[in-house]
Design brief:
Elements lengths: L46 E7 L2 H9 L4 E9 L8 H6 L5 E8 L6 H10 L8 E2 L2 E2 L5 E5 L2 H20 L8 E4 L7 E2 L7 H4 L28
Parallel strand pairs: 6-7
Antiparallel strand pairs: 1-3, 1-6, 2-3, 2-8, 4-5
Helix pairs in contact: 3-4
Length: 226
């Protein structure tokens, strides 16, 4: 009960946990499905996209199944505490959301297709929750790495907002903000990386609205849950 107030209240920098200068756990070298390195630097020509759409176990699988994605990893983003742990993030005292970093080849899968997959894989109208998962760490978010990404993300939000409202949903609560340097991505502990590959019957709280997102001219990659 000590942390209950922060389940639906983002802490200020002063309220947030102090954190640490370096993470106190190791991150695996390679992706268990794609076989590529998890941490950069990445090959020339690849780009990075960061998304928060609820529990990162199921969210990561959505993206690693997409054509053109080179690697994925899960972590914490958008908060104040440097190098947080999973327990600290879940306490609500760091301000982070659970995020998926997607490293992709834009010649194969455009950013707009990743945005379409993002919007359609969760309900972006729920605020500090996704389904039965309640807390600030489950909020919907897009953290962008260029002005072009920022513009595309905002345009996709505006387009999806219209069709969601027409379908009876409330307004989108997704935060769309630049990633660096104010919102660094902190990799999560090793056991979270590709969790649903290691635990095929593990928990997956990801579920969309069933409303198609009219983003871009390219179709989203076909994704089927295992």
């Amino acid at each position: 009960m000590l942390f209950s107030r922060f389940k639906t209240h983002l802490p200020t920098p002063e309220e947030a946990l102090k954190g640490r200068a370096e993470r106190d756990f190791t991150v695996p070298d390679r992706h268990t499905v794609l076989g590529n390195p998890l941490l950069g630097p990445y090959p020339e020509g690849l780009e990075i996209a960061d998304f928060g759409l609820g529990c990162f176990w199921g969210a990561e699988r959505k993206f690693w199944q997409a054509d053109g994605v080179w690697t994925t990893l899960v972590g914490y983003q958008g908060g104040h505490t440097p190098n947080p742990t999973y327990e600290e993030v879940c306490s609500g005292h760091t301000g982070h959301t659970e995020a998926v970093r997607v490293v992709y080849d834009p010649a194969v899968v455009p950013y707009t297709a990743l945005l379409k997959l993002f919007w359609e894989s969760h309900d972006p109208t729920q605020g500090f929750r996704q389904g039965n998962d309640v807390g600030t760490q489950y909020r919907s978010a897009v953290y962008t790495h260029s002005p072009a990404q920022q513009q595309a993300a905002e345009a996709s939000r505006d387009a999806y907002r219209t069709v969601l409202r027409d379908s009876g949903y409330t307004d989108i609560t997704t935060e769309i903000l630049p990633a660096d340097p104010a919102r660094p991505f902190y990799p999560a502990e090793g056991y979270h990386q590709q969790y649903l590959d290691k635990n095929p019957a593990g928990y997956c709280g990801i579920g969309g609205t069933g409303v198609s997102c009219p983003v871009g001219v390219a179709p989203a990659p076909e994704v089927t849950d295992q």
